[in-house]
Design brief:
Elements (H helix, E strand, L loop, with lengths): L2 E6 L7 E7 L2 E8 L2 E6 L13 E3 L4 E3 L6 E3 L16 E2 L1 E4 L2 E5 L2
Antiparallel strand pairs: 1-10, 2-3, 3-4, 4-8, 5-6, 6-7, 9-10
Length: 104
């Protein structure tokens, strides 16, 4: 599967997110206390920019900036209305100090 370099580990501190692009696909890559997760930057409620909103690092939840839907970054599952459908997730790993997300 194709991988996209996100950034060196030190550029994505704990409780931070970085948005990367693979063509027209935008992915938010999250550091949840040393564990990395990739989440499509698209709220399932209205296709808004999900990963540009707040990140609740205590619960691992992305909060949509448009209408406040909560999405679990680990599973992509919608946790609150108005979102009811899951969002795509992408595997993330660290290789030689570089955070990479699988986009294929």
């Amino acid at each position: 599967m194709p991988e996209l370099d996100v950034c060196p580990v030190e550029e994505l501190p704990s409780c931070a997110v970085k948005i990367v692009y693979a063509g027209s696909l935008a992915i938010g890559v999250y550091n949840l206390n040393g564990e990395y997760y990739g989440l499509e930057d698209r709220c399932s409620h209205d296709d808004g920019p999900l990963c540009e909103g707040d990140f609740d690092c205590d619960d691992g939840v992305a909060i949509c900036p448009r209408h406040g839907a909560n999405i679990d970054i680990r599973s992509g599952r919608a946790l609150t209305l108005p979102a009811v459908e899951s969002v795509a997730t992408y595997p993330v790993r660290v290789v030689d100090g570089m955070v990479k997300v699988e986009v294929g």
